[in-house]
Amino acid sequence: MNLYSITNNKVKSVSTKPFKLEKEIQSLVENNLEELFNLQLVKSELSVKNFRVDTLGYDKDNKSFVIIEYKRDKNFSVIDQGYTYMSLMLNNKSDFILEYNESCGGTLKRDDIDWTQSKVIFISPQYTDYQKHSINFKDVPFELWEIKKYENNVIGLIQHKTTSEESISSISDDKSNVVNIVSREVKVYNEDDHIKNKNLSDNIKELYYSLRERITNIGDVQVIPRLNYIGFKRKTNFVDIGFQKNNLWLWINLKKGEIDDPKGISRDVSEIGCYGNGDYEVKVYPETDLDYVMFLINQSYKKQG
Q1: Reported pTM
Q2: CA-closest candidate to residue 167, choices 146, 153, 186, 195
Q3: Residue 142 CB burial class (10 angstroms; 0-12, 13-18, ≥19)
Q4: Alpha helices in the chain (DSSP H)
Q5: Which residue has the higher pLDDT, 189 or 123?
Q6: Strand-pair partners of 250
Q7: At the topology level of CATH, where does 4-185 sit?
Q8: What is the domain partition of the chain in residue ranges?
């Protein structure tokens, strides 16, 4: 990733400034964890059994724990370390819950956590092609983020995303293998889990794709499939879409009283809850006015900016 400054319509490359220590990266991320990853900081340098976790975060949206590891050098195995940390978490669930309750003043119980959404985030200034290729499976519960520091106190953060449709479980038939053990409990969802594995009518599939195109064309939008919905994220999810046979459910991430809905098609679910994020639910059919639906969604998109 190259950055340039502009002066009098002329561009000049912005020089990188290497991180001196892993701790420098860790301190920067932990002090800005909510802004960078929308996570709550639980504990720095958490010791569990004979292992040390650099950073433990909590994803309030997905009710799951996230382990973050920082690497300044390139000589480490993403797969080996990733599955070691995932196994550590899944085999010591009570330790992670206890740490959250003690550090954050919470009252979480084991069943409050969606362990299927557990993941590990690696953050490093650089990855080798081998490391990036090693996680190129559709269901690996790891994320690789590359961080760069530039002059003038600018940083860049970019995720290396998978393009494969292959499952990592297919590389081994050994059910006792740590990869298969973790894969049985942790699920990395994709859009097909909602589109192809449900008894949806063709009209609803077409409606989803039409709405998806409109939403992703708003601006910088990430599509985040989850267990019960497909989320659309700016800084955080601004709208989530759930599926039924003959309609779509939209959950718009605005607090009660924040939405401008003159037609009154949204329902206040602040007192009863919902699968997605926000206090407003909208039921969408093929005949629904999508221009008006986008008017509501845009309000949340702007709010999350």
Answers
A1: 0.79
A2: 186
A3: buried
A4: 22-30, 33-37, 78-91, 93-104, 129-134, 178-185, 191-195, 202-216, 290-303
A5: 123
A6: 241, 282
A7: Trna Endonuclease; Chain: A, domain 1 (3.40.1350)
A8: 4-185, 191-303
